[in-house]
Amino acid sequence: MHNPESSRAFPSAGRRRQRGLTAIGGLAVLLLIVSGVTLTLKLAPHYLDYYTLQSVLEGLPASEVRTMSRTSLHDTLKKRFKINNLRDFEISDIITLDRSRDGTVLLLKYERREHLLFNVDVVLTFEKRYEYS
Questions:
Q1: Distance between CA atoms of 76 and 64, rounded to whole angstroms?
Q2: 71: number of Cβ within 10 Å
Q3: Can you tell me the distance from the alpha carbon of 11 to that of 101, in angstroms, rounded to the nearest whole number?
Q4: Nearest residue to 128 via CA among 81, 62, 58, 76
Q5: Rounded distance, CA 127 to CA 96, Å?
Q6: How far apart, in whole angstroms, are the C-alpha atoms of residue 33 and residue 116?
Q7: What confidence category does residue 132 fall into, taking pLDDT thresholds of 50, 70 and 90?
Q8: Residues 105 and 130: beta-carbon distance below 8 Å
Q9: N or C: which terminus of the chain has fewer CB atoms within 10 Å of its end residue's CB?
Q10: What is the pLDDT of residue 89?
Q11: What is the pLDDT of residue 9?
């Protein structure tokens, strides 16, 4: 026989929902957070270097760049690299100078490879063109 009082004692016993993270869910969230922090710590220095390189090239006086010789431009950049602590870059490897009747073009172009884990690497490609007419 069915007793109506017994069903009131446990009104949602069959329909209760669990709340919170399971152990596997918690580990998955932790893995995502650790991965994000690892990527940030490994890749952020490369982006900081790139933005510093951009500021060095944007800081060159346009009127002088058009008339500077390759050697004096190289020396000026070398000094600015040293001031901004850009010691891991060889100017001739990352900057190309192209002169024409229309003006001077500096092309900043380089790649960096960063090891993540095991046999997984990330390749970062940076490129920007500066025109001085």
A1: 11
A2: 8
A3: 87
A4: 58
A5: 11
A6: 15
A7: confident
A8: yes
A9: N
A10: 95
A11: 58
Contact 106, 57 (CB under 8 A): yes
Q: Contact at 8 Å (CB) between 86 and 53?
A: yes
Q: Tell me what pLDDT residue 34 has.
A: 94
2 within domain boundaries:
no
In a domain, 36, yes or no: no
69-107 pLDDT tens trace? 999 999 999 999 999 999 999 999 999 999 998 889 999
pLDDT in the model for residue 15? 65
Dist CA 95 CA 108 (whole Å): 5
Length of the chain: 133
Domain with 115 in it: 45-132
Between CA 37 and CA 32 the distance in angstroms is 9
**Structural domains counted in the chain:** 1
Task: Print burial letters for 11-24: b (CB count within 10 Å at least 16), e (below 16).
Answer: eeeeeeeeeeeeee
**What is the C-alpha to C-alpha distance for residues 13 and 125, in angstroms, rounded to an integer?**
58
Q: Is residue 8 a part of any domain in this protein?
A: no
- Residue 103, domain member (yes or no): yes
